[in-house]
Write a structure and sequence with these properties.
The structure holds two protein chains of two kinds. In chain A, about 5% of the residues lie in helices and about 40% in strands. Chain A is mainly beta. In chain A, the strands form three sheets. Chain A has a five-stranded mixed β-sheet with strand order 1-8-7-4-5. A three-stranded antiparallel β-sheet of chain A has the order 2-3-6. Chain B is mainly beta. Chain B is built from no helices and four strands. The radius of gyration of chain B is 14 Å and the shape is elongated. Classes of the chains: A mainly beta, B mainly beta. The interface between A and B is large, with 59 and 37 residues. Strand 5 of chain A pairs antiparallel with strand 1 of chain B.
Chain lengths: ~160, ~50
């Protein structure tokens, strides 16, 4: 997905739309194997979004994430940790229910995230494989967005692998 | 919310949802590229009086 062919693609920085879609990431990653990325969706795009794509241009498998928002989701913010293989652009592309596309890009300096060794003992990692923890920030209230964090124990060693 | 993600070791996903019932479950179902499937369910109880 190096170039976007859709003529209706709108850069989120165009015509005052800068704040509709933003990517937060470090300018230079401390650890390229666990780079924190936050994507913020605002304004009418928050209401109209259907899907969000996250692309890391120079990773072996550039499409790093696709998020489909259901009726109970609040798409205001998505935060993930990704592997980044080289100095590259990150792209977030939002698709609305009407099929309109919005995009934003950000350059990041990071290298070697896909070849970084596992951070812990592989046997221990496999023992904990699939364990999950869900943390909710605050008390749930009807009709109010609740920030939630899902942690999954998984070595994810194929996170950057070419899949044919 | 449904997602396909290729992310780091011990992946973390932060998102938000809007509770629409007094009591319900939130479920996470994860499939990896080795065809392993994991799922877990957590109860969500909305604070009384809200």
């Amino acid at each position: 997905m190096g170039r976007f062919a859709r003529p209706d693609l709108r850069r989120s920085g165009d015509r005052g739309r800068r704040s509709l879609l933003t990517i937060e990431a470090p300018d230079r990653a401390e650890d390229a194997a666990i780079v924190p990325v936050k994507i913020t969706i605002a304004g009418e795009l928050r209401r109209d979004i259907d899907q969000l794509y996250f692309v890391i241009d120079d990773n072996p498998s550039p499409l790093a994430g696709r998020f489909v928002f259901g009726p109970m989701a609040d798409p205001g913010e998505i935060a993930i940790r990704v592997r980044v293989d080289d100095y590259t652009y990150l792209h977030a592309v939002a698709e609305t229910k009407a099929g309109r596309l919005y995009a934003v890009a950000r350059f990041i300096k990071a290298a070697g995230g896909c070849s970084a060794p596992a951070g812990k003992d592989q046997a221990l990692a496999m023992q904990r494989l699939g364990q999950m923890k869900m943390t909710m920030k605050g008390t749930p209230h009807l009709g109010e967005p609740l920030e939630t964090r899902l942690l999954v124990s998984h070595p994810n060693s194929s996170g950057c692998r070419w899949i044919r | 919310m449904e997602s396909d993600i290729s992310i780091s070791e011990d992946p973390s996903l932060t998102f938000a949802f809007v509770p629409s019932a007094a009591s319900a479950d939130i479920e996470a179902a994860v499939d990896d590229s080795s065809n392993r499937h994991f799922e877990h369910r957590w109860p969500v109880k909305v604070e009384p009086g809200t």
